[in-house]
Amino acid sequence: MKIGGVELTREKLAQMMDFSSLNPDVSEDEILKCCEITKKYNFKGFHVNPIWVPVVARELEGTGIETGYVVSFPFGTNPTNLKVAEAEYAASILKGKPWVIDMVTNVGKLKSKDYKYYKNDIAEVAKVAHDAGIECKAILEVQLLTDEEIKIACELATEAGADWVKSSTGRHGGPSLKQVKLMRDCTPSHIKVKVAGTGNFWTPMVALGCIMAGAERIGTRNAPWIVDELCELFSLE
Amino acid sequence: MIKVRGIDLTKEQLAKMIDFSILHPNTTSKEILEGIEICKKYKFNSFCVNPNYLSLIVEGLKGTEVEPSVVLDFPFGTGTEAMKLAAAEDAVKRGAKALDMVIDIGALKDKNYKLVTKEIKNLVEASKGAKTKIIIEVAYLTKEEIVAACKCVEEGGGTYVKSSTGRADRGPTMAEVKLMRESVSPNIGVKVAGTGSFWTPQIALGCILAGADLIGTRSGPKIVDELPLMEEVYKNMQIL
User: Fold this and answer.
1) pLDDT exceeding 90 applies to what percent of chain B?
2) With contacts defined as CB-CB under 8 Å, which chain B residues touch A4?
3) Residue A2 and residue B236: Cβ atoms within 8 Å?
């Protein structure tokens, strides 16, 4: 099966997945189990809440798999200085390891049309990431936005230096196919698109739609199911 | 154009694979009348309602190809055979062209296949040529039970085996749709319901890919309306 002229393989599909375990009641045992799954599938990254980041970084040591650090998750409502402090803390404990920041943007400020704040909020966190030599994703929560707001958010995130625009935290629903396509269409091609909030029902088909619409990464706790089912469906090896 | 299992998915073809349904218990006659207009506009395969609105849709769909259909013993399937048959006879008399009946799920789980098959057989007889869509509610079944239920539908002579009422905890998975397709012969249709309201067009596409012939959903218009977007998104994909 080809997507955009590129032959898709099991390995490539797994590298399009950021596995995640972000529920507040996840135990250390479950995190450790997920680390094993992440290594088995060789996902691109594993994203957890900050308290488990040192555990994950230790377990994934030497694999090249990214540890995902979520900033101001899941609401994005912390003031910029607190977001920066979170990012700096992450940089201090993850120095020299493969990691990435997924920061939640301030949706309320966007809706208040305080674009200067919205952009600077992203820019300050992105700067910490770039100083540490890693990428920064800006989570927009597009399912809470109008099409016009999605366009503005994508523009501001791009101007702020985010490397990725990400659709959702997965905590308040997810994007539609149309919204994923809109994100891809209104963002310059060097900015990548990540989708989350793909739910727990027919997630492989939803993920396929996201990929076809131009998403380069899917963040989900259902990553193993997606890889297994799509590989079976399309006989990928 | 998207091609799935050799089927060219034009708007018209896709609409013919959709049973539009309005089954909420609090549905008003005004909503049903609107539903009739929607069905005429989209030319769906059928319009499926609760028994209290059957006469209204039979009247409203007169002169169109949209089949008036009705659910029987919905959504639990826990009525007696006599109740189910009485409802079927009443529905046929009032002009139903398809009957969506829920099986006795408990009996199936008790492995009382004789009872389940007999109920279907007698329903088919009572249907007097109307199509029968036998709901097995896969959310409550193991793989083995799904296969057994499909066998009962086949032996009972049902026109379709149908996955769900849309009222249980969940609809079917792709694997379950595939299993249903593989468990009945090609002359038995597979109808899926319970596809939800999130990414329904994408899920509908997955259902067809997995072997479904019909999709029962209140999101029918959304599925057809989103076809051009899906065509655009899937233009580089070679398998579909």
Assistant:
1) 95
2) 236
3) yes
Tell me the CA distances in angstroms from A33 to A38, A48, A219, B215, one per residue in order: 9, 13, 18, 38
Q: Which domains does chain B have, with CATH numbers?
A: 3-233 (3.20.20.70)
Between β-strands A6-7 and A2-3, what pairing exists: parallel, antiparallel or unpaired?
Answer: antiparallel
Global pTM exceeds 0.90: yes
Picking from B197, B200, B195, B202, the residue whose alpha carbon sits closest to that of residue B233 is B202
Q: Are B135 and B77 in contact (CB under 8 A)?
A: yes
Report whether pLDDT(B237) > 70. Answer: no
- Which chain B residues have any C-beta within 8 angstroms of a chain A C-beta? 170-171, 173-175, 195-196, 198-199, 201-203, 205-206, 209, 226, 229-230, 232-234, 236-239
Kindly identify which residue of chain A lies nearest to residue B235, measuring between CA atoms. A212
Specify whether A166 is catalytic. yes
How close does chain A come to B228, measured CA to CA in Å? 11
Which residues of B are annotated as catalytic? 100, 162, 191
Q: What pLDDT sits at residue B44?
A: 98
What's the pLDDT tens digit per position in A29-84?
999 999 999 999 999 999 999 999 999 999 999 999 999 999 999 999 999 999 99
Residues of chain A neighbouring B205 (CB-CB closer than 8 A): 205
Residue A231 token pair: 């590989």
How many residues can be counted in chain B? 240
Facing A177 at nearest CB: one of B175, B202, B209:
B202
Q: Confirm if B40 and B15 have CB atoms less than 8 A apart.
A: no
Q: Is the pLDDT of residue A237 over 90?
A: no
Task: Write down the residue that tokens 């089954």 correspond to.
Answer: B23
Q: Give me the CATH topology for the region A2-233.
A: TIM Barrel (3.20.20)
Enumerate the domain spans of chain A. Answer: 2-233
Q: Quote the minimal CA–CA distance from A196 to chain B in Å.
A: 13
* Least trusted range by pLDDT, from A4-13, A199-208, B34-43, B121-130: A4-13
ipTM rounded to 2 decimals: 0.91
Q: Characterize A182-198 residue by residue with b for buried, 16 or more Cβ atoms within 10 angstroms of its Cβ, and e for exposed.
A: bbbebbeeebbbbbbbb
Of B175, B229, B239, the CB nearest to A177: B229
Angle between helices A203-212 and A177-185 (to 10 degrees): 30
* Angle at alpha carbon of residue A177, lines to A161 and A229, rounded to 5°: 105
Q: A194 an active-site residue? A: yes
